[in-house]
Amino acid sequence: MRFWNILMEDVESTLAFPDKVLTTEKDRHNAIKRLGERFLRMTYKDEEDHILVVTVTPRRRPW
After folding, report:
1. Are 40 and 32 in contact (CB under 8 A)?
2. What string of DSSP letters covers the chain?
3. Spatial separation of the C-alpha atoms in residues 43 and 62, rounded to whole Å
């Protein structure tokens, strides 16, 4: 997250209030949220007792 200057507040906001959630392979999910002119895409997996965040990347397009 430091490489892309992504704030923890943006990650938490994307997880709590995503604009769109897409299911991917291996029971993972992509949460997408618009932040200004860019999008934030977060890939995560629901575990039994927690949520495992796999990647967080800024995007120009939501996909």
Report:
1. yes
2. -TTTT--HHHHHHHHHS-SEEEE-GGGEEEEEEEETTEEEEEEEEE-SSSEEEEEEEEESS--
3. 13
Give the Cα separation of 28 and 4 in Å (integer). Answer: 22
Using DSSP, state whether 18 is helix, strand or coil.
Answer: coil
Q: Which of 31, 61, 26 is nearest to 47 (CA)?
A: 26
Q: Looking at the predicted structure, is the pLDDT value of residue 1 above 70?
A: no
Q: What is the pTM of this model?
A: 0.84
